[in-house]
Amino acid sequence: MKKIVLVFDIDDTLYRQMDPLVSACEACLGYQLQDREKFYSVFCKRSAEMFRASESGEISIKKSRLIRIQNTLQDLQIPCTEELAENFQKKYAQNQLRLSLAPELEELLEWCREENVPMGILTNGPLEHQMRKYRILGMNRWIPEKFTLVSAGAGVAKPDVRIFEMLQKQMNLKEYNFWMIGDSYANDICGAKKAGWNTIWINYHHYKTPEDGANIDYTACSEKELSEMVKKLLTLS
User: Fold this and answer.
1) Do residues 206 and 222 lie in contact, with contact meaning Cβ atoms separated by under 8 Å?
2) DSSP letter string, 138-196
3) Which of 13, 68, 176, 235 has its CA 20 to 30 A from that of 3?
4) 226 by DSSP, 3-state: which?
5) How much is the pTM?
């Protein structure tokens, strides 16, 4: 067995973020979105903008969450009142209390635990918000809290190389190769490469590979594909 450390992002890696998101939006609008993938793509872009604004202290987290859905719907030419934005955030928060792992991913984590493969979590976001997801998903069964690092708690966010180095220091596994598994090319993949890690890009939405795709060692488009890939990596002689 190779000496490898697996580090997972949370959102759209350990669970599929689009499901609770789209469900919340359609419940508030009262009809089905014409293009769910486009909605998700625009929301991710607007959410990233608001994350940077809240991290820098320009606006509050609460306000940033309202603005991201307002901007998303505006981009899609869908009317959005402040009341609708507040209802969306409330429904989205409720949906996030029911997150679950895909069976293939749960089986992979259990297999890694049985094979004594060290694992960690590295995620951007508010500390308690992300740790709540950690608990709802039951990640403590495989990954201890001490190996779970959230940007708000660390004081620095991906893709800053310092947060990767922080987790590496916390895990104290000097002779191991670290592998970052995440959906954000800019944050997870590029940041990890700068830290000297290997990478698996999670591409559940079948996005086009970025022009500068050299930072990607492997790509997984499903939980099943990820499971098979990781097992092969770990057992490859």
Assistant:
1) no
2) TGGGTS-GGGEEEHHHHT--TTSHHHHHHHHHHHT-TTSEEEEEES-IIIIIIHHHHTT
3) 13
4) helix
5) 0.93
Q: Which two tokens stand for residue 207?
A: 């996005």
Q: Are strands 119-123 and 148-150 parallel, antiparallel or unpaired?
A: parallel
Read off the tokens for 202: 């999670």
Residues in Cβ contact with 17 at an 8 Å cutoff, skipping those fewer than 6 apart: 11, 40
89-98 contacts at long range (C-beta below 8 A, 24 or more positions apart): 89/65, 91/23, 91/24, 91/27, 91/28, 92/20, 92/21, 92/24, 92/25, 94/24, 95/19, 95/20, 95/21, 95/23, 95/24, 96/20, 96/132, 96/133, 96/136, 97/136, 98/20, 98/136
Provide CB contacts within 8 A for 185, sequence distance 6+: 201, 210, 215, 216
SS3 (DSSP) at 219: strand
Backbone angles phi, psi at 99, to 5 degrees: -70, 150
pLDDT in tens, the chain (237 residues): 779 999 999 999 999 999 999 999 999 999 999 999 999 999 999 999 999 999 889 999 999 999 999 999 999 999 999 999 999 999 999 999 999 999 999 999 999 999 999 999 999 999 999 999 999 999 999 999 999 999 999 999 999 999 999 999 999 998 999 999 999 999 999 999 999 999 999 999 999 998 888 999 999 999 999 999 999 999 874
CB 78 within 8 A of CB 104: no
Q: What are the start-end ranges of the H helices in 3-102?
A: 18-29, 36-55, 61-75, 82-95
